[in-house]
Amino acid sequence: MIKEELIKLAREARSNAYAPYSQFRVGAAVLGINGKAYTGCNIENASYGMTVCAERVAIFKMVSEGCYKFKALAVVGSEKEDGAPCLACRQVMTEFCESFETPVYCGGPDNKIFEHTMNEICPFPFVMFEKNADKI
Predict the structure, then answer these.
(1) What is the residue-wise DSSP string for 32-94?
(2) What is the model's pLDDT at position 136?
(3) In degrees rounded to 5, what are phi and psi of residue 29?
(4) CA 11 to CA 95: how far, in whole Å?
């Protein structure tokens, strides 16, 4: 699966976002090491602390289905702004990404795709990858 396909899945997932407070709809897609894609959208709550980002929804779906590592992630923001993972999502991503070189694709409204590695977007994660090596 290539980055354009993951971005397409993230855009499709964005249409399911529940964002009545911010009006900022986000979609994400992760490619598990099992070859399956998992999608997610942001889900807001009147108590903002209970809001869940699209990236975490996609990752948690992957984990809940028994896959504990992903080899690529894509995120897209609203039709008018670029998407990029928040810091909480970046920390969760480090727990479940395949390596520090795992690609992260951020989609912009003008169909540009910005590509980064996990190391670039989260150079000093709190938890190291080896912790969950047994879950692969």
Answers:
(1) ETTS-EEEEE-B--SSGGG-B-HHHHHHHHHHHTT---EEEEEEE--TTS-----HHHHHHHH
(2) 44
(3) -145, 140
(4) 24
Tokens of 46: 């009147």
**Domain ranges (residues) in the chain:** 3-135
Buried b (16+ CB within 10 A) or exposed e, 7-41: bbbbbebbeebebeeeeebbbbbbbbeeeebbbbb
The fourth-level CATH superfamily of domain 3-135 is: Cytidine Deaminase, domain 2 (3.40.140.10)
Give the pLDDT confidence of 1-59 residue by residue, as tens digits: 689 999 999 999 999 999 999 999 999 999 999 999 999 999 999 998 999 999 999 99
Instruction: Report the alpha-carbon distance of residue 86 to residue 131 in Å, rounded.
Output: 23
**Count of other CB atoms within 10 angstroms of residue 69:** 21
Q: What pTM value is reported for the model?
A: 0.90
Q: What is the CA radius of gyration of the chain?
A: 14
What is the bridge-based pairing of β-strands 103-107 and 70-76? Answer: parallel
Catalytic residue status for 95: no
Mean pLDDT, residues 58-81 = 94
Catalytic residue, chosen from 12, 44, 55, 115, is 55
